[in-house]
């Protein structure tokens, strides 16, 4: 029997509220737990732990590089579902869905803190 269940990344953000609004209202996650400057959001078994911190407890702002990658079965269906909400984000914060040369079809969304959330699926036959 295997012991591992999943990997749940931690996202460090300067403020919790904008992150929760982004994940819940834009990407369709639900906040399952929140206390102080910490929250756990989840969608369909994929979870992210979010921790707000400033100064020595903070993290540098995102640089739009890959930080969080969520494997999905149908990236185009996800895009169709999210499109009305994604259209409310700043220009340039959404890319795709697009086929990538490394065999993935991806939807890329920049979170309020500058980190990149990628949703991807394997391209069959590649």
CATH class: Alpha Beta
Shape: globular
For CATH, the homologous superfamily is named as 2,3-Dihydroxybiphenyl 1,2-Dioxygenase, domain 1
Strand content is: 35-45%
**CATH fold group:** 2,3-Dihydroxybiphenyl 1,2-Dioxygenase, domain 1
Indicate the mean pLDDT: 90
| Structural class label | alpha/beta
Q: Supply Rg.
A: 15 Å
What about the largest sheet? 4 strands, mixed
Give the strand order of the largest sheet, numbering strands 1, 2, ... along the chain.
1-4-3-2
Give the second-level CATH assignment, the architecture.
Roll
Low-confidence stretches: none
Describe the 3D structure.
- The protein has a single domain, classed as 2,3-Dihydroxybiphenyl 1,2-Dioxygenase, domain 1, CATH 3.10.180.
- It is built from two helices and eight strands.
- The protein has helices at about 15-25, 75-85; strands at about 10-15, 30-35, 40-45, 45-50, 65-70, 95-100, 105-110, 115-120.
- A four-stranded mixed sheet has the order 1-4-3-2, with helices on one face. It has a four-stranded mixed sheet with strand order 5-8-7-6, with helices on one face.
- The protein is globular.
- About 20% of the residues are buried.
- The model has no long low-confidence stretch (mean pLDDT about 90).
């Amino acid at each position: 029997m295997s012991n591992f269940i999943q990997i749940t990344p931690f996202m460090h953000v300067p403020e919790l509220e904008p992150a929760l609004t982004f994940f819940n209202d834009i990407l369709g996650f639900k906040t399952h737990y929140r206390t102080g400057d910490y929250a756990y959001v989840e969608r369909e078994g994929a979870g992210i732990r979010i921790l707000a911190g400033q100064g020595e407890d903070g993290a540098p702002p995102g640089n739009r590089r890959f930080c969080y990658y969520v494997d999905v079965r149908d990236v185009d269906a996800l895009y169709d579902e999210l499109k009305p909400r994604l259209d409310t984000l700043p220009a340039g914060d959404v890319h795709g869905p697009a086929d990538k040369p490394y065999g993935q079809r991806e939807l890329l969304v920049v979170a309020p803190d500058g980190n990149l959330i990628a949703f991807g699926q394997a391209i069959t036959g590649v």
